[in-house]
Structure prediction request, 353 residues.
Amino acid sequence: MQRTAKAKGGRRMQYRILSSAVAAVLMAAVSARAETTVVFNNYLSEQNEIMRNVIRPWADAVEQASNAEVKIDFTASSMAPPPRQLEMIRSGVADAAMNISSFTASQWIAPIIAELPVLFEVDSAEQHSVALWRTYEKYFREAENIEGVHVVALFALSGNHVWNNKRPIKELADAHGIKLRVNPNGTAVVEAMGGVVISRPAVESFEIITRGVADGTVLPISSVEGLGVLKELKYATLYPGSLYRSTGSIVFNRGFWDSIPDAEKTAIEKVSGEALARLGGANLDRATEETRAKLQDAGVDVFEADMGQIEALRESKPVVAAIEEWKARAADLGLEADEVIEFYREQLQQAQN
Prediction:
């Protein structure tokens, strides 16, 4: 009888151990299914202003909003060059990425409204980011389908100004012949100034300036520090409202997005859209003021352009042509371009409140 009791007790103990092991495996499986890992293509350094002020804060906010059920996993190196982010995401090489709009303007015109040269006199990245997102949601979300891509956020960077090592640019004519690195969306203003366009990504600014390929670059104030070129520059010309600005987006592969559980989509959306526009834009505005205070100590001679230069640029053929081209493409989508621009202006003012 004792043996039988012991045997039964032993079997019960084995059963409990087995049951506990099975439960642990099941719980691990459920936990694995509950966590969504987003492979996010990254081509920015941690010091880059977009990473510090927009992308990293967004990734942290996603994890917090989802109770750690969504994790943004940044790649150790870029899986595609900056101009090919939409193509890469569409093909599913990565789950998500940050896209700089000027490099994909031929595929997607919605963000370019914020980039139109010398059209808006507001310089706040936060206001532009909010206005951009609201305009996208109202006019472009349905009108302009980006095949294979789902957009969760749009943001505008701080306004662009001219930095160079050749000579002070106090008047537009002073820029004649100066070789300036610029994103594609800034070529119109550089051409209107008589500068020589060197169309290269902003992340290459340090290399091409230190090698003498370019005399200078067109960048936001905060970017000259974030891209490591502050100490490599002698002259800055700052324009009221800025010459133009770049924009970015956070995009997902559509198939991957559709596969995410609804609760996790909701968590991501909660901290994206206008929430990210506010967060990232405010961070960029703060970074602009911090860097601006460092310019004199860094040995940069700063010149403040007047509105007369902005007005002259607005009337120049390259700038007029760039704006008219965007309007024509908006019309091709069935949109009234002047109405969209007016709505954007209204949102700029409302976003200030």
Notes: Strands lie at 36-41, 70-74, 96-100, 149-164, 179-182, 196-199, 216-220, 235-238, 245-253, 301-304. The mean pLDDT is 91.
